[in-house]
UniProtKB/TrEMBL annotation:
SMART domains: C2, PLCXc, PLCYc. One of its GO terms (cellular component) is nucleus. Keywords: Calcium, Cytoplasm, Hydrolase, Lipid degradation, Lipid metabolism, Membrane, Metal-binding, Nucleus, Phosphoprotein, Transducer. InterPro entries: C2_dom, C2_domain_sf, EF-hand-dom_pair, PI-PLC_fam, PLC-beta, PLC-beta_C, PLC-beta_C_sf, PLC-beta_PH. The keyword Metal-binding applies. It comes from Varanus komodoensis (Komodo dragon). This is Phosphoinositide phospholipase C. One of its GO terms (molecular function) is calmodulin binding. It is found in: Cytoplasm; Membrane; Nucleus.
Length: 1014
């Protein structure tokens, strides 16, 4: 985005810095659970069987007690475990890597040297990936070992789609392409690698772009051409030119110095095709500005003003009926940026009485509650420092075990657990929730809260909890898959109707009330049963929230969309999948984001389209897990209908164009490739699917260059997202990218594709051309073009005015008896024509005419000269002679009769304009009376009725504007006629004034000479 950097966004993503310790390397002992002994010491080059580990696959690094400990006794003995004064766990380093959240692997290292190398690795290695999303970096052993040689087989395997092309590219770079040979590190530098890629993937599309810019067959761009390209093609037209000034010559010259590899081109301020390609892929030309990836939202608004990244049944790794539960899933989900996780807690067995987490009444496995709490404490704030919400589904019907759960939370979380509400935000009606910034580093508990009772009642509840038989039983069965969760209402079913059968409702029916110990942990996230939006509005308690199964949420959204939005302005709502999704599929979260629902919980283990959209959206704002909702979804004085199809008051709609030009390294197979482009947002904005044609067997560098896909009107850009996805011809997913419409940069850009889990892919990319600008209705296109390019518009209007005035002027002259028309085009007649044309440009529109004095002054020098010329010519014959010279314009201007006429005409025009202004005021007053309404506060019903009448008000306003324009046009016509009449009066008086002005002697002239004089 040209000029988007200076002075607007203070925070910037810091460049990646690799510690010297990791660059030089250090000796480690590598071990795993499969091997029976530790392997020989090696450098921490992240090698596994002579393979390279892409750093984008690294999900976490752990040291100390959180690192993997060897279970095999022999390995423990070799590594020094069990010694009297040794702490080998401080020397451990575990690297967690994998393609997604479920399928993760562990590389275990133990440093041989006694230093802090392991801790440095923990802090920096994961940060290399998580700290800068979108940059792909690979740990290469070539950088660490000067003697190591890389096999060519690895390169041939990486680009296996066309081996002949690979061999040709290697040969052109001076490299041996024998599979059995190896390449030394100093022979395969970064420059050689870039040259190899350029030879491997030819770019005719770049040549075409250079030709369109204006290179005209030259292999370079000049500085001026590059500056025009950046400030015109690459600039976002929605930007303010003061806050985001265009790039200067000095800034463009810096880009040439940075990206142009040829020194001769640099010295001549030119950029070659190779340098231009580097610039297109550089950090100054990203499809989304870097500040959008950084913390760009205001984090000081109430908690209800944000979309919160939320998980459903966080512990599951597969389906809802027979999947495995995993403690590691809590770590991975938190590391991905999720801020709301779910814990389904059940009563432990009598032998240990340790509560555990599982999916009740199913065959899913169990995991200890304590281990989950420890995992949360270790990973909660690695990715984001903003608050984590623990959504408890509590089925522990044992007061003792509930007390143990509360104790684990207090002891393990420590000060991070928020128990007492802030003094600034007491739990009282009308008090807003604290902000994420004020809750920084805090953990909030969402659990049923015990109501205030007397002592006797409290004792009876505790006794009842202890006497209630456990709902967990081996003979309870699985139940009907479609019912065990569909009827689940979690915490909103606060009081069960005793007449209703609860055994078929699944786990929700067995959820128990909280004991005193668990209740004390609940403050700002207190779940209550949802009754109605009206009841919630009357209670006005921001700390109360409700959960909705997706079917109930859709019902509320369909029946009361505006009330749902109003509810979410103050209170939190949580949406979770329906029970029939036993395969852990997800609903589309965009549906509930449109209503302002904050916690739209999804199954993170399923990387379907809904989850891909969720991961792509929450990638922004530094992956904090919090995204600020659009302003009108937060303001109390604004109403919003999620199903609106009209332009929203105060929101500028956008038009988005996407042209898929080409792709690079999209697949390692020789297959056809196609691209899909989708828009997600409000129902009126959502459009699926645009699709390119399928390239024929070319996955290296397919070129489409088709007509752009146009999303004509995006009503709410701040809530809309663009998805560009690449597929093989058989439908296999290759990669995609989710882009917020409000942040898309215009121009030519490379898009680094992401995997299904939103991890950057190493080489696959698309070259696209995008345009995102303010939406303009078809009826207003001419006005918009005039504002965008006023010089061009004025030139066009002048051209039209000249054509019209030429016709008007000719007819007027002939009517006045000017027979000398054809012979005076270059003489004094030109003055009148110029004056008339200048006025014609103004008469053609509704702009106010020139001031009266200025208008007459313009025509004085032309029309008076023309009048004198015509009068003299009408009395001249070829043999006639003149005794006196013609009277000058200045002499006529000073004549008393002319001054008197001028004042009279001024009074007439002034009186005419006064009458016109009086009519305009009268019309405005009448229109205000038609459109005025009551200003008193109104109820929600009245407001909705007014909202339904908005279209009628808009039609009334259009009618009023048209009436005002018609009145103004008629007034301008009258003023123009008045001026014309005044101009006709001037030549008639010149004959009478001519004899009264003292004549000056002049040389005797012949008729022919007099004619030439004129």
């Amino acid at each position: 985005m040209a000029g988007a950097r200076p002075g607007v966004h203070a925070l910037q993503l810091e460049p990646l810095r690799v510690p010297e310790t990791l660059i030089k390397g250090s000796k480690f002992m590598k071990w795993d659970e499969v091997s029976r002994a530790g392997e020989t010491p090696c450098l921490p080059r992240f090698l596994f069987d002579v393979d390279l580990l892409d750093i984008s696959c690294i999900r976490d690094t752990r040291t100390g007690r959180y690192a993997k400990l060897p279970k095999d006794p022999k390995i423990r003995e070799i590594l020094g475990f069990g010694g009297p004064e040794q702490r080998p766990e401080d020397k451990l380093l575990t690297v967690v890597h994998g393609p997604d959240l479920v399928n993760v692997s562990f590389l275990n290292f133990m440093t041989v040297v006694q230093d802090d190398t392991a801790k440095v690795g923990r802090g920096k290695v994961a940060g290399l990936f998580w700290g800068a999303v979108g940059q792909v970096r690979v740990f290469s052993a070539w950088v660490l070992d000067t003697e190591w040689k890389g096999p060519l087989g690895f390169i041939l395997k990486m680009f296996s789609a066309d081996k002949k092309r690979v061999e040709t590219a290697l040969e052109s770079c001076g490299l041996n392409f024998n599979r059995s040979e190896s390449i030394k590190r100093d022979e395969f530098t970064l420059e050689i690698f870039e040259r190899f890629l350029n030879k491997l993937c030819l770019r005719p599309d770049i040549d075409k772009i250079l030709l369109e810019i204006g290179a005209k067959g030259k292999p370079y761009l000049s500085l001026d051409q590059l500056m025009e390209f950046i400030n015109q093609k690459q600039r976002d037209p929605r930007l303010n030119e003061i806050l985001y000034p265009p790039l200067t010559r000095a800034q463009v010259r810096q880009l040439i110095d940075k990206y142009e590899p040829n020194q001769q081109f640099q010295q001549r301020d030119q950029m070659s095709m190779e340098g231009f390609g580097r610039y297109l892929g550089g950090e100054e030309n990203t499809i989304v500005p870097p500040e959008k990836l950084d913390l760009s939202d205001d984090m000081t608004q109430p908690l209800s003003s944000y979309f919160i990244n939320s998980s459903h049944n966080t512990y599951l790794t597969a389906g809802q009926l027979t999947g495995n539960s995993s403690v590691e899933m809590y770590r991975q989900v938190l590391l991905s940026g999720c801020r709301c996780i779910e814990l389904d807690c059940w009563k432990g067995r009598p032998q240990d009485e340790e509560p555990f987490i599982t999916h009740g009444f199913t065959m899913t496995t169990e995991i200890p509650f304590k281990e989950v709490i420890e995992a949360i404490a270790e990973s909660a704030f690695k990715t984001s420092p903003y608050p984590v919400i623990l959504s408890f589904e509590n089925h522990v019907d044992s007061a003792k075990q509930q007390a143990k759960m509360a104790e684990y939370c207090r002891n393990i979380f420590g000060d991070a657990l928020l128990i007492d509400p802030f003094e600034k935000y007491p739990l009282q009606p009308g008090i807003a929730l604290p902000s994420p910034q004020e809750l920084l580093g805090r953990i909030l508990v969402k659990n049923k809260k015990r109501r205030a009772h007397g002592k006797g009642s409290e004792g009876s509840i505790r006794k009842k909890l202890e006497q209630t038989p456990s709902s967990y039983s081996d003979s309870s069965g699985v139940g009907e898959p479609g019912m065990y969760r569909e009827a689940e209402s979690e915490e909103e079913e606060e009081q069960q109707d005793p007449k209703k059968p609860t055994t078929d409702e699944g786990t929700a029916s067995s959820e128990v009330n909280a004991t005193e110990e668990m209740s004390t942990l609940v403050n700002y996230i207190e779940p209550v049963k949802f009754k109605s939006f009206e009841v919630a509005s009357k209670r006005n308690k921001s700390y109360e929230m409700s959960s909705f199964v997706e079917t109930k949420g859709l019902e509320q959204l369909t029946n009361s969309p505006m009330e749902f939005v109003e509810y979410n302005k103050k209170q939190l709502s949580r949406i979770y999948p329906k029970g029939t999704r036993v395969d852990s599929s997800n609903y589309m979260p965009q549906v509930f984001w449109n209503a302002g629902c904050q916690m739209v919980a999804l199954n993170f283990q399923s990387l379907d389209l809904a989850m891909q959209l969720n991961l792509g959206i929450f990638e922004y704002n530094r992956r904090s897990g919090y995204l600020l909702k659009p302003e009108f979804m937060r303001r109390q004085d604004k109403l919003f209908d999620p199903f609106t199809e009209d332009i929203i008051d105060g929101i500028v709609a956008n038009t988005v164009k996407v042209k898929i030009i080409s792709g690079q390294f999209l697949s390692d197979k020789r297959v056809g490739i196609y691209v899909e482009v989708d828009m997600f947002g409000l129902p009126v904005d959502t459009k699926r699917k645009f699709r390119t044609r399928t390239s024929q067997g070319n996955s290296f560098n397919p070129v489409w260059d088709e007509e752009p896909f146009v999303f004509h009107k995006v009503v709410l850009p701040t809530l809309a997202s663009l998805r560009i996805a690449v597929f093989e011809e058989g439908g296999k997913f290759v990669g995609h990218r989710i882009l917020p419409v409000s942040a898309i940069c215009s121009g030519y850009h490379y898009i680094c594709l992401r995997s299904e889990s939103n991890q950057p892919l190493c080489l696959p990319a698309l070259l696209v051309y995008t345009e995102a600008y303010d939406y303009i209705p078809d009826d207003h296109q001419n006005y918009a073009e005039a504002l965008i390019n006023p010089i061009k518009h004025v030139s066009l209007m002048d051209q039209r005015a000249k054509q019209l005035v030429a016709l008007i002027g000719e007819s007027e002259v002939r009517a006045a008896g000017g027979q000398a028309w054809h012979g005076l085009e270059g003489g004094p007649w030109a003055g009148l024509v110029g004056s008339q044309r200048r006025k014609g440009a103004r008469w053609g529109g509704v702009q106010p005419p020139l001031p009266y004095g200025q208008g007459l002054a313009e025509c004085a020098s032309g029309s008076f000269a023309w009048a004198g010329a015509c009068h003299s010519l009408s009395h001249c014959v070829p043999s006639a002679s003149l005794d006196v010279s013609p009277q000058s314009v200045e002499e006529l201007r000073q004549h008393k009769a002319f001054v008197k006429l001028l004042k009279k005409q001024y009074r007439e025009l002034k009186e005419l304009r006064r009458k016109h202004m009086k009519k305009i005021c009268s019309l405005n007053k009448k229109q205000r009376g038609q459109s005025s309404g009551e200003g008193a506060p109104c109820s929600l019903e009245t407001i909705r009725q007014e909202h339904e009448g908005t279209r009628r008000k808009v039609d009334l306003q259009d009618w009023q504007i048209k009436g005002l324009l018609q009145l103004r046009e008629s007034q301008h016509q009258l003023e123009r006629d008045c001026k014309r009449e005044h101009l006709r009066q001037v030549p008639e008086g010149t004959r009478a004034w001519e004899g009264q002005v003292p004549a000056k002697p002049a040389p005797r002239l012949q008729g022919g000479g007099a004619h030439r004089e004129f």
